[in-house]
Prior knowledge:
Order of helices and strands of chain A: HHHHHHHH
Mean pLDDT of chain B: 84
Structural class of chain B: mainly alpha
Oligomer: heterodimer
Helix content of chain B: over 70%
Structural class of chain A: mainly alpha
Shape of chain B: globular
Distance between the termini of chain B: 27 Å
Number of strands of chain A: 0
Strand content of chain A: under 5%
Strand content of chain B: under 5%
Number of helices of chain B: 7
Number of helices of chain A: 8
Largest sheet of chain A: none
Order of helices and strands of chain B: HHHHHHH
Largest sheet of chain B: none
Number of domains of chain A: 1
Largest interface: A-B, 30 and 31 residues
Mean pLDDT of chain A: 80
Shape of chain A: globular
Amino acid sequence: MNKKWWKIACIVLLVYTVIGGLLISVPALPQLQETIRNLYFHVCMWFAMMILFGVSVVHSIQYLNTGNLRKDISSRAYASTGVVFGLLGYATGAIWASYTWADPNNPAYASFGSIVREPKLIGAAIALLIYFAYFVLRSSIPDLDQRARVSAVYNIFAFAMLFPSIWIIPRILPSLHPGKEGNPALNFNDIDARMRMVFYPAVIGWTLLGVWITTLKIRISFLQEKNWLNA
Amino acid sequence: MRQQYSLYGVMLYVASTIFVLYLAMEDPNAATWNALFWITQLFVCINAVAKSFLQENRGRMLYFYSICHPAVFVMAKLLYNIVLMAILNVFNLIIFIALMGNPTEVLLQFIGISFLGGLGLSLVFTMLAAIASKAMQQASLMAILGFPIIIPQLLLLIRLSRMAFAEVFRPGAAMQIVLLLLALDLGIIILSVILFPFLWKD
Lengths: 231, 202
């Protein structure tokens, strides 16, 4: 099958990410030290999430143009995988923050209040809330076509409003989180050359994994709904 | 004005909310005052603007559908809600200052910012009311759909309105936020005009 190459690439890249990410030497910065290796996992989760949400919006636009319900199913599937990656991003970020931001003199949960105020965390929380709202909206409309249309409209509208919260606001409000000037993680001067060797493959690998999971979900949905899709 | 009672209803809602705040807090400091003002503004907007779609019955929507293009209709709704929100904004400000005192240093600036905020809030919630009116449990859905979208704007507005409490900003920073908010508003209008026709196909 000529469609298999990217799945093989995904496995190879992720194996490389885990092995290379844990073994290849990294610059020892104060505060960060070896925790910088989390970059290969934490940042990639957010990359994958944004890409998956973006693909979901593209499918929504295509649905509005064509009225093909398969596009609606794809849109929902990409959004739900995006949410999973977002939650994983939070989990990896929380582990990282507990070693670098939390006050070592107190138990980690005592710093919770001050860490959550972080603009990047607020932006991420908004992204997840928007997509939770998207699922609530979907479940509250019984009619199939209307559900697809209304949720596509909300998906596009919410995604457009999401951008200012994720890309602009963190640059205006004060923040501890790195990547404030310029585009976070896209700036070549931000990361050491050795780390770039693992970081970029890692981003691609995790994103491919997300797409892979989603295509499986979409195929299951198509099978489940095949009665009315072909009707 | 077909439904005068709904306007008076929202005004009563504003007045009683602020009265409760007045009884609950004596002499709030500037930061608290600011936060309370914007929260009141948010809930007033949800209550006032939500009615614009949720109260229309099916027959009347069908009538509007037959006489005009959806883009024209949504523009009219946006315009109406902007004016409605501006009126309620003035009302809200007057009662707030009367009951809770006036901690602002530059009142005129704060009034300007509150109008800018009211504009953004009414635009966002008009579109969301249109979306929510298609679903069940409309009123609660408005809040679920709306809050995540409005948080960034509200954060910017609260930050900006500290200027009226004599906080010094980096030169150009305040203007940057104002322009950003205006750009957002423009984006919402464009999106509403593009997306609303899809909502209207029934």
